[in-house]
Amino acid sequence: MNTVQALLLAIRREAKQPVRLMEVCGGHTHAIRKFGIPGLLPETVSLLSGPGCPVCVTHTGFIDKAIHLAQNYPVILATFGDLIRVPGSGRTLETARANGADIRIVLSPLESLKLAETEKSKQVVFLGIGFETTAPSVAATLLTALEHKIENFSVLSAHKIMPPAMAALVGQHSRLDGFICPGHVSTITGSGIYEFLSRDHGIPCVISGFEAADILESILLLIRQINDHQAKVEIQYRRAVRPEGNIKALKIMNEVFILRDDWWRGLGIIARSGLIPGGRYAVFDAGLRFNLPDFPDADNPGCRCGDILRGLITPPECGLYGKTCTPDSPAGACMVSSEGTCQAFYRYQN
Amino acid sequence: MCLSIPAKVVSTTGNMAIVEIGGLMIHACLDLVEDIQAGDFVLIHTGFIIQKISTEEAEETTRLIREIESYNDAP
Amino acid sequence: MKDKILLVHGSGGRMTRELIRELFHPYLHNQYLDNESDAAILNRLTGKIAVSTDAFVVNPVVFPGGDIGKLSICGTANDLAVSGAKPHSLTAAFILEEGLEISVLERIVSSMAIETEKLGISLVAADTKVVPTGQCDKIFIATTGIGTVIPDLEQVSLGKDIQAGDRIILSGTIGDHGAGIFCARYPGHILTSIRSDCACVYPMIEMISRFGTGIRFMRDPTRGGLATVLCEVTEKNAWGMAIKESGIPVRNEVAGLCDLVGLDPLYLANEGKFILVAAESISKEIITVLRSHPLGENACEIGVITRENQGRVILETPIGGTRLLTMLSGDPLPRIC
Questions:
Q1: What does the alpha-carbon distance between residue A189 and residue A185 come to, in Å, rounded to a whole number?
Q2: What domains sit in chain C, N to C, each tagged with a CATH number?
């Protein structure tokens, strides 16, 4: 019997009572669907998908702001591929590009900095999305930009941190029995950021890797905590996550970024949950540099991304799902990103 | 979230490294980590090395897996 | 001759003739093109004729494993081949951007000559136009091909004879072309070149043509990848497909790239591969024959046609789970999360 089979057998044996486990990591959403895990679990184990996809929680106003910037200033927008088809209130970055805006896909923030070095006559603005896994990379890029005095570079940040959102979720649920905690956010932050969930709310937490065996082992560890009436933070992904995290990366992130209240699509405003360049790095904040107006959130009234992100309903329970909201024409961001709950559900349908 | 994948460090020069993922070689920045050497296994995300992978932890069969395997093998 | 294409090269006058004579003719000359007439007059062909046309737009125009010229010949020849036809002749229309380097154009034309010669076919008609800078991306090529349908393979383009129990066979590794093009677009970041698999598949199809009506269906998984072709052929049918994901061959570096940037090899383009659906009784033999050809060394069976799950493609995951395979929405995008 191989490891996966052994873990599935153990889960079936030990999950005697119904449990609702939420993952808050787009990578986990993707892996769970890709491996077909839900179909292999006993009916007692429900897996919910929370706000773990930074693209999905980016509000329409950010996209509108980016498009406004690209259309009204002689800038080159550099973005990760994830954002290119996210709908703003009307258009996407892709349609703005088709209308003449200079928008380029990059694989790394360093690439966008190099672009600024070669295109000296233009301003290069990097669209920063991602949680604590990505924010340090952008922070390190800004350290380099400052050191090398690259003045035609800036960042329009939608970076966010996880713990305030997880705290907001805990208040919303009648019953959430455990968290499968993000694997790669945790390589940076360490395990301490989840302690309040187990200590103050009695919710078991396991930090999981991304292979099938990792996810199944994490589910089993959560079931065991629940059965033993325990609530603690465990690291399943020990090969990559240390309790203290990556101290150097955290230091760089905290040097460059400051916290602000931020709008999470589907969850509303969450205090001190967003990151923007601050202190001597504030000069690299594109919002300040270009004096950009804020755009209101423009969610489709029928869109229930928020309820889906909170794990309150499944995608088919949204009236738009599969009808006016499909991967080809997404009404909300949960359908745009391949790690968004709705697209993952649509594509994998298990 | 986050596509971050294991890679093997091939060489380092200044603050950059060349890493290998299944035969594919890419550049990765060392600014977020320390003491990385050729031969180390690391996690890569958006062109940066974000953590070293502990091969001891990776190789060790967990107590849990051993326990499961033992009671599944029991007569 | 100048070193760059100018607008005047497309005017139809002296400079056009000079371009044809000094660049195209040394590589592409035969009794048809040499006549410089408005149409090629071909001898009567026997049997049914297959016709296919395609336009080729690729960035970069030269990539590891090929270029747009090679692509334009193999792409159309492959469309004919997987429709059960032996390619006979091709036409080509070129749209050149003002400023295109002559040396790049020469390389592209030479690739086309090499591929047509390998296949034993002729380019019988061609046309060239030049547009101002910015109105096309270096070079666009459209090719049309005709071929003679192999009598026992007439059924393969529509697949109406597919039945439950039939096997799905793939001629080799997937995602090579899409991955190769992607790497070529990020040379600063990705140091390894992945070679496109661009190649003509007719020689392999000729080898298996003797299996005749035992071959129910063929197609080449180009844009949209293997997943798109499987979904396209299955939807609206009275049968389904069960595919074993772990049976689909993917080269290490292609898998590595996909893991790195969040692409899925199932949706990446292939330009030298084909899938076929064949009767179960001949599946193993077909694979043996394909593997005897250098381009078919990784040929394998990847799935089966099922009575259940009508109109759907169900993938068995490496851990024994299942998921539904769906069609691609838009081009694959790299992602960080």
A1: 6
A2: 7-149 (3.30.1330.10), 154-325 (3.90.650.10)
